[in-house]
Design goal:
The chain has ten helices and ten strands. The protein has a single domain, classed as 4-Layer Sandwich (Phosphatase 2c, domain 1). The strands form two sheets. Strands 1-10-9-6-7 form a five-stranded antiparallel beta sheet, with helices on both faces. It has about 300 residues and is of the alpha+beta class.
């Protein structure tokens, strides 16, 4: 328990230590609205795409609230597809019914005078309850059908200068800014556990095989342990993706693909060193990464959402 708590704290620290910019600290009033693009491909070895991608936006108090969710379903006979869609639909239904009128505007205080972040913590508690309910329901469906029906999930909520993250499994969320790349989430896999304990190295075959063995999945554990935390967004790019999306790409290649120079080459611009027109540029950046993975023979489904937030 202590080791797991330490790992989760390390993940949260990485997110909260993302670099701050002078522009962010001087900004007054609403931020530029986040923009996004999404992509999903079945890969070279799968007839069925069991990934599910959800992006929803609403406008509250003059600002855009954006939620991005990616799920990677696990299970044959369409079980994985069903599970991924079920979890994504659960988040979609949550967002449709949630009253965002009490959420802080992302600039320090809510309408009721509460300090920054208090309401996002409340949303985090709701997300935890949501995931626990979905986990129980998928387990019940699996027992009824005799199929293993479960899914990973990575979810990101952006509101003003605040973010909220929920993580189960080995899908990931990255943050890129100023030519640097930060992995904000921790893979809940056997390989990652062994790596933390010092039992294997990242280059060993044992790690490479065990990193595909999930320790946590929605619908796969009677005791679900989602990692949920909030932080400050300082402007930049957020990549929310399934394991197939990053499997064939090194951290250095992801960093380059999400760098300001890559953004300019693809027509993305305006903020944080980028120069162009928005979501078409984000889409081209995603396509470039998918093309690279396909050329390297990726067999798994690969899906991602790329979001640019204002600085």
């Amino acid at each position: 328990m202590e080791t797991r708590k330490k790992r989760e704290d390390e993940v949260k620290t990485r997110a909260l230590k993302a670099p701050k910019t002078k522009r962010a600290s001087l900004l007054k009033g609403p931020r530029p609205a986040p923009i996004f693009a999404q992509i999903s491909d079945s890969g070279l070895g799968r007839r069925i795409n069991e990934d599910s991608v959800l992006v929803r936006t609403i406008r509250v108090k003059g600002q855009k609230v954006l939620m991005a969710v990616v799920c990677d379903g696990v299970g044959g006979m369409f079980g994985g597809l069903r599970a991924g869609e079920y979890v994504a639909r659960g988040f979609d239904e949550w967002m449709k019914q949630y009253d965002f009128s009490e959420v802080p505007g992302g600039h320090g205080r809510s309408a009721g005078g509460n300090t920054e972040g208090t309401t996002l913590k409340d949303i985090g508690k709701e997300w935890k309850a949501l995931l626990e309910r979905l986990n129980k329901e998928l387990i019940e469906q699996g027992n009824q059908t005799g199929l293993r029906i479960c899914s990973t999930v990575s979810a990101l909520l952006v509101f003003g200068d605040r973010i909220l993250i929920a993580q189960v499994g080995d899908s990931r969320i990255y943050y890129a800014s100023g030519g640097q790349l930060y992995q904000l989430t921790h893979d809940q896999t056997l390989g990652q556990e062994k790596l933390y304990k010092g039992e294997v190295a990242e280059t060993q075959d044992e790690y490479l095989s065990d990193r595909k063995i999930l320790r946590q999945a929605v619908g796969g554990n009677n005791r679900l342990r989602p990692v949920i935390f909030e932080g400050k967004s300082n402007g930049g790019l957020y990549l929310v993706c399934t394991d197939g999306f990053y499997e064939k790409l090194t951290d250095a290649e992801l960093r380059e693909a999400l760098s300001p120079s890559a953004g300019r080459m693809n027509g993305l611009g305006g903020l944080s060193g980028f120069g162009g027109a928005g979501s078409p540029g984000l889409r081209r950046m995603l396509e470039n990464m998918v093309d690279m993975s396909l050329r390297r023979g990726i067999m798994d489904n690969l899906s991602a959402v790329l979001i640019r937030t204002g600085a």
